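One such shown below:
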Amino acid sequence: MAGKQRQLAAKAGRAEGAGIIGELQAIEQQRVIRARGGTVLALCWSVRRTRQVLMVWTPNKVTFLRVLVGFAAVSLFGHGAWMNLLAVVLTVTSIALDALDGHLARTRKMATPVGAQIDILGDRVIENMYFTYFAVVGMVSLWLPMLFFARGAVTDFLRGLAMKAGHSGWGANAMLQTWWGRAMVGSRWSRGAYAALKCACFCYLGLELALTRGPVLLMGPMTVDAHAAIRAGAHVLAWLTAGFCVVRGLPVLVEGWKFLAGSLTGGASSRVMRGGAG
């Protein structure tokens, strides 16, 4: 009798233990399932965040895009009237993107010294590319792209010396310290006027190419006087753009000269010291 009771108690203990173990296993499975679900959710969130980061438009990405659009526009010039008109539309798009990258840099607090240099590099590529093409096809003087190239090389060289000396493109530590220099180079009206002049010049030349030149002319035959008037307008607009470009570069030349003089003086001093040590 006592033995049967002990056997029944042992069976009851084993059953209870099995129930407890089963409950613990079920809880652990739920924990594993929840952990796996959390891991999946975390991975999904990480992928979404990565995609959002990749899709964020930065000023440097916009600058790269506008250079590509400019290349596409120039490649379409000279391939028929309608391709010329499409190139004009792409030219306007490229100039608009130039305004967009500056807007993004200001509103999103993403302005950096390197970004400013990349923006200037994009400007140089666009200017030299368009004026070189129009000079090659005989629509503007060959001196025009040479002037833009020389002006850009000198001002960018002086800006590089200023950055080496610890000066940035804006703010209290900017390269340009005079009010007139900042107004002519960095103010919104100056940058906007220069962008508008370039857009008008490039679009005017592109429309002239589409309307009056090539095997397919949208305007048909033109009188000599009308063609001469259109040509005169192109030259006036092109040289007006070049003149404004030179004027905007004068403050950089005037205020950047001290950085060149300082570099030359520092280089001479270091050579004297090395000679004395020798």
Notes: Residues 27-37, 39-47, 50-54 have pLDDT under 50 and may be disordered.
